[in-house]
Automatic annotation (TrEMBL):
Family: Belongs to the sodium:solute symporter (SSF) (TC 2.A.21) family.
Transmembrane segments: 6-22, 42-64, 76-94, 115-140, 152-171, 178-196, 226-247, 268-287, 314-339, 360-381, 393-411, 418-435, 447-467
Record localization: Membrane
Name of this chain's protein: Sodium:solute symporter family protein
Membrane disposition: Multi-pass membrane protein
Record keyword Membrane present: yes
Species whose genome carries this gene: Metapseudomonas boanensis
Keywords, comma-separated and alphabetical: Membrane, Symport, Transmembrane, Transmembrane helix, Transport
Domain of life: Bacteria
Length: 481
């Protein structure tokens, strides 16, 4: 029965995606929904795109082992990212009326910076999309009681997401995200009430977690631990800002005010609803300690699915897996579209500059297909956890794209040479430090890379200019720089 309910839900999702394809008349409709979306749709996209497999499986699994100290990157760093976008970045970026975040780097620093940052952004999506595809495999494996392998489940789920994203683009993402957000919210609220009651109510669960020190963000205040905390916080707080999925949601709004407010609203919803799977998973340790210990030893991401399958009625199982599939597919569709649009606009267009709009739309759809294949292969061969895949995805943009974006928007003296030196300093130092990093090292590689990237921007912009020219515009460098 559960499998049949899930199958019907997936068919409905594909149907909504195909309906959305009727709204796609040109490449701007496909990439950004024609800048015509209302506040509810944009807020739903922000929330649903970020609320993925890591929110339901990865974050709770990490919390039950390490507490808040282990999940500083996500959801707390992600919340900070979306709030910063709404408060600081949405309005100036919206006014520039560009298709991708890569277009900003071209306008501000020229085509070479555009090409490098776009390739970095595209590469960063491998881990995030792969995490969602891996989670789809896990869900189908659990639902079929092992009859469908994780690999087979991943391929089935990937085909479904690809189908509706390929035809409807941003409109498919928007409409399916809105539907999926409702299912996530209703499903998780119901399950929190049901499982919380099984554990004796919310107060015993929260009290028990507090007594175990799970709500501490740092276990000590030694300098090394403080630096590690800062590195974890900024990885997604800053590293997620120069991303096409964030920018696409800003650009899809009807007005800049909607763009800003929807981002902040999505941030609040995201952080709030991330707490519910955490509560459910920790409640499992009080309801069935033996089961939790078993999966802690094997794969802590499986605690919550097995609690639902073994301890709740069919309706609760339908609500849980409906919410879980909604979370995964909403994130997967948005994160498949973003790098594909970036590749077409900022890489392919450089080599085929004379594409008409019809050819450009076809190229974006082919890029979605290629990105799906690439991330599927990455997911099949990666042995990282879902949470690690998502966290690692943003380190590369943190060290290579954050400083050029910040300086390009808010520092008039930033130059093309400065941007190139910032990218080189950040990227090369991070790669070297990642390759040689030991647990005893003081500086986390991504934090060191970010700091060296900032140093590179200063040095490259203030020294005599040998590469390019300084590019300034009222749109690219606001007066308050």
């Amino acid at each position: 029965m559960l499998i049949w309910f899930v199958a019907v839900y997936l068919l409905i999702t594909v149907g909504v995606g195909f309906y959305a394809s009727t709204r796609v008349k040109n490449s701007k409709d496909f990439a950004a929904g024609g800048r015509s979306m209302s506040f509810p749709l944009v807020a739903a996209m922000v929330f649903a795109t970020w609320f993925g497999s890591e929110a339901v499986l990865g974050i709770p699994a990490t919390f039950i082992e390490e507490g808040f100290a282990g999940i500083v990157e996500d959801p707390f760093g992600s919340f900070g990212c979306l709030m910063l976008v709404g408060l600081i970045f949405a309005r100036p970026l919206y006014r520039m009326n560009l298709l991708t975040i890569g277009d900003f780097f071209r306008k501000r620093f020229g085509p070479n910076v555009e090409m490098i940052t776009s390739l970095v952004i595209i590469g960063s999506y491998l881990g995030w999309v792969a995490a969602q595809l891996t989670a789809l495999g896990v869900v189908f494996n659990v639902l079929s009681d092992g009859s469908i392998t994780t690999t087979q489940g991943m391929l089935i789920g990937t085909a479904i997401v690809l189908l509706y994203t390929l035809f409807g683009g941003m409109w498919s993402v928007a409409l399916t995200d809105f539907m999926q957000m409702i299912i996530i919210v209703v499903g998780l609220v119901y399950l929190t009430w049901l499982v919380g009651d099984m554990a004796g109510g919310p107060e015993p669960v929260i009290t028990h977690a507090a007594s175990e020190g799970k709500f501490a963000f740092m276990h000590s205040f030694e300098p090394k631990d403080i630096v590690a905390f800062i590195a974890a916080a900024v990885t997604m707080m800053f590293g997620s800002i120069p991303q096409q999925d964030v920018y696409a949601r800003v650009m899809s709004a009807k007005t800049e005010n909607i763009a800003a407010r929807a981002s902040m609203t999505g941030a609040v919803f995201y952080l709030s609803f991330c707490m519910l799977p955490i509560f459910l998973t920790y409640a499992a340790s009080m309801i069935d300690p033996a089961m939790v210990q078993k999966w802690l030893a094997e794969d802590s991401q499986m605690i919550l699915p097995h609690l639902i399958m073994e301890r709740t009625p069919l309706f609760a199982q339908i609500m849980f897996f409906g919410a879980l599939l909604s979370a995964i597919m909403s994130t997967a569709s948005g994160t498949l579209l973003a790098p594909s649009v970036t590749f077409t606009e900022n890489v392919l267009k450089r080599f085929i500059p004379d594409m008409n709009d019809r050819q450009f739309l076809l190229a974006m759809r082919l890029s979605v297909l290629a990105m799906t294949v690439a991330t599927s292969v990455f997911a099949l061969y990666s042995d990282a956890s879902i949470y690690e895949m998502v966290g690692n995805a943003y380190k590369v943009t943190l060290v290579a794209a954050v400083v050029p974006l910040f300086a390009g928007l808010f520092w008039k003296r930033a130059t093309t040479q400065g941007a190139l030196v910032a990218i080189a300093f950040g990227l090369l130092s991070w790669i070297y430090l990642e390759a040689t990093y030991q647990e005893t090292d003081f500086w986390p590689p991504q934090l060191a890379g970010l700091m060296l990237s900032a140093l590179g921007m200063l040095i490259g912009s203030l020294l005599p200019q040998f590469v390019g020219t300084r590019r300034e515009s009222l749109e690219a460098a606001p007066a308050n720089a």
